Amino acid sequence: MKKVLVTGGAGFIGSHVVDRFLESNYEVAAADNLVTGNIENISGKNIKFFNIDIRDSVKLEELFSAEKPDYVIHLAAQVSVSSSVEDTVYDAEENIMSLINILELCKKYNTEKIVFSSTAAVYGIPEEVPSKESNKTAPLSPYGLSKLTGEEYIKMYSGLFGVNYVILRYANVYGPRQSAHGEAGVVSIFNDKIKADGDIFIEGDGLQTRDFVFVKDVSKANFICATENIKNETFNVSTNTDISILELFNTMKKYSEYTKDAVHKEARKGDIRNSRLDNTKLLDSTSWKPEYTLDQGLKEYLAK
Ligand SMILES: NC(=O)c1ccc[n+]([C@@H]2O[C@H](COP(=O)([O-])OP(=O)(O)OC[C@H]3O[C@@H](n4cnc5c(N)ncnc54)[C@H](O)[C@@H]3O)[C@@H](O)[C@H]2O)c1
Q: Can you give the pTM of this predicted structure?
């Protein structure tokens, strides 16, 4: 049976990726230093857990030499846009240096494929909506730049050393286990307020749109891109839909007991008005297709 290493495996998306591989009876190892992850996301699961910081190349090599993973699903990262502005050095250490550690070991231990979690933030202000993989990249934050730099390192390791990869650029991911603390997604922030019957704030008119994708569709994309015969490609992972924040709020209200109206506050400066990713390339190249509409995803999420 093949073996997979999930970095960031105790995190929101990572723990769903762990579940997806376990479902198909893979041997799973997870590496996480729990800086934003939660051990409860993976406790009781039949995996090997390594509580290590992947910036530590010595500890990481111990893991690789013991486990020799066939696939590496690399999700561990500094994930906050605002933190990347406040501490750009930490963001680069997390998102660039630790990735290079991983790539060195993929090269040394002949890993079959690395699947890398990138982001819509690499596009910056979209050249067109929906954004295609071939569109211009012009990140507006150190986070977007560190992810884009990671993509380029991966392609270089592929060209120089034959490390096979798939790069996945996610739209706005939501679902169970997403933390509402720190730089959380809007869905988890609204969910927290719904549970506490607190006020829900919408920035600006609420007509700004995002492309929401359910976490199980994202974990499935990771599984398929690791295990299917596809390599050295970059894909958007999205539902390719425009959902306004107001529409999101109303749908969440529909599936919960929440009765209050949203409170509008000043729009965030520099906020991108419309963000949507074209998922045609992933649909055409693999067996992946999103199974969850926003309604279905929110219904499942809010029922928990
Ligand atoms: N959530 C989204 O909407 C979204 C969108 C685009 C891209 N992504 C990317 O998906 C990946 C997973 O994000 P998430 O939303 O699940 O966030 P998350 O914070 O839940 O997951 C990140 C995990 O990495 C771990 N980690 C961070 N630094 C580490 C280090 N140095 N060593 C070991 N472990 C470390 C954290 O403890 C955490 O468990 C990230 O690479 C993120 O950039 C997420």
A: 0.97
